[in-house]
């Protein structure tokens, strides 16, 4: 047997002997998902009773369809804000740019939220920000149960390319930037 064949055989045996990660181990699963870089968004709506603005940072945003224009994102059921978004008739998705980590942090766990933050309301009464890379203003099209999340599909009724810039990226539990090759 030639040396290269011996090396390939040894590698194959080592790979077969390596235990596979437990598919139900939440920490390992989260670590594996963290290898996929995503953009960072802030989703906004009004509280369920319509009184106050509410927002949440999410990296689960994705395009669903161009015709009709549909997008989706997933709201964690464990979030205190989940109940507002799961019944919202309308919401806005704000795509954040590099350097807007502080805005993302405002809408996580114990962040400051809208306190002292400039925003305006759109025609549907949803709070919106203008100083972001892009904004998608949506009417809720459908919601679907998805494990420990609710998948929210929105029909885009307006969108705006607000400014140029690099996107804020999230991977491996950290914020960063995209560097073109």
Automatic annotation (TrEMBL):
Task: Provide the alphabetized UniProt keywords.
Answer: Oxidoreductase
Region ranges (Disordered): 1-24
Q: Does the keyword Oxidoreductase apply?
A: yes
Q: Where's the Flavin reductase like domain?
A: 33-177
Against InterPro entries, the record matches this protein to: Flavin_Rdtase-like_dom, NADH-dep_flavin_reductase, Split_barrel_FMN-bd
Ranges annotated as spanning the membrane: none
Q: Where is the composition biased (Basic and acidic residues)?
A: 13-24
**GO molecular function terms attached to this record:** FMN binding; riboflavin reductase (NADPH) activity
Residues in a coiled coil are none
Give the PANTHER family listed for this entry: FLAVIN REDUCTASE, FLAVIN-DEPENDENT MONOOXYGENASE, REDUCTASE SUBUNIT HSAB
Q: Which family does it belong to?
A: Belongs to the non-flavoprotein flavin reductase family.
What is the protein's name according to its record? Answer: Flavin reductase
Organism of provenance: Paenirhodobacter ferrireducens
């Amino acid at each position: 047997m030639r040396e290269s064949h011996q090396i390939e055989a040894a590698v194959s045996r080592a790979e077969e002997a390596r235990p596979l990660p437990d598919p139900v181990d939440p920490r390992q699963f989260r670590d594996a998902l963290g290898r996929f870089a995503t953009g960072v968004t802030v989703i906004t709506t009004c509280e369920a009773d319509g009184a106050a603005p509410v927002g949440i940072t999410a990296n689960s945003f994705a395009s669903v369809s161009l015709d009709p224009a549909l997008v989706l994102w997933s709201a964690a059921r464990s979030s205190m804000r989940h109940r507002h978004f799961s019944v919202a008739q309308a919401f806005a998705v704000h795509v954040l740019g590099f350097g807007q980590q502080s805005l993302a942090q405002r809408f996580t766990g114990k962040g400051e939220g809208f306190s002292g933050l400039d925003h305006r309301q759109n025609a549907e009464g949803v709070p919106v920000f203008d100083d972001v890379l892009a904004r998608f203003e949506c009417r809720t099209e459908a919601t679907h149960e998805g494990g420990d999340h609710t998948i929210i599909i929105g029909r885009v009724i307006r969108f705006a390319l607000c400014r140029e810039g690099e996107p804020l990226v999230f991977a491996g539990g950290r914020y960063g930037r995209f560097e073109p090759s």
